[in-house]
Design brief:
Elements lengths: L1 H7 L3 E5 L1 H10 L16 E5 L4 E3 L2 E10 L2 E10 L2 E6 L7 H6 L5 E5 L12 H11 L3 E5 L7 H8 L15
Parallel strand pairs: 1-2, 6-7, 7-8
Antiparallel strand pairs: 3-4, 4-5, 5-6
């Protein structure tokens, strides 16, 4: 963050829930305090995001999901008539969030490993949820090394894509 804020010569906006932003302000109090005498401090601006926000031509909507017992956010991005949702780190999706995941061009969802996990979706749970959402393209992410890429893609077939480094998605 430090290098990016230096290059841009401005504070970088960091969005999140009120609880997350309060934790960030506590843990990283020095980033908003320009009076620190040491150099190399990233400059960020913490922004509580409880509602959709417009950034450039995109509307970014926070989506409540669960990470174990913690309420966190995934995001839906709508731009130019296309839509993508990114929920890379969750263990459950509340019913209200499923409504916000309708009519997606692409859905990217957590699927950590084959076995159940207390704070992440398993691959099977992820595939089931991706089927329920019914996006035009579905991707599973946050995979561990417990799954061999090509074998997992073969098992999932064409319904769900196992992404790779450098993959670009066009909706």
């Amino acid at each position: 963050m430090r290098r990016f804020s230096e290059l841009q010569k401005t504070h970088i906006p960091v969005y999140g829930s009120s609880a997350t932003m309060q934790a960030m302000r506590t843990k990283f109090d020095y980033v908003e305090n320009a009076s620190h005498s040491f150099g190399g401090v990233p400059r960020v601006h913490f922004i509580d995001q409880a509602a959709p926000v417009e950034i450039s031509k995109a509307t970014i909507t926070p989506l409540p999901v669960l990470h174990g017992t913690d309420s966190i956010h995934g995001y839906r991005v709508d731009c130019g008539g296309k839509s993508l949702a990114y929920v890379p780190d969750c263990s459950a999706i509340p019913e209200i969030t499923f409504q916000a995941l309708e009519n997606l061009d692409a859905m990217i969802l957590d699927g950590l490993r084959p076995q159940k996990h207390p704070t992440h979706l398993s691959i099977g749970e992820s595939v089931e949820i991706l089927g329920r959402i019914g996006a035009r393209r579905s991707f599973i992410t946050h995979l561990t090394h417990n799954s061999e890429h090509h074998e997992l893609q073969r098992r999932l077939g064409e319904a769900v894509t196992v992404p790779w480094d450098g993959l670009e998605i066009e909706c």
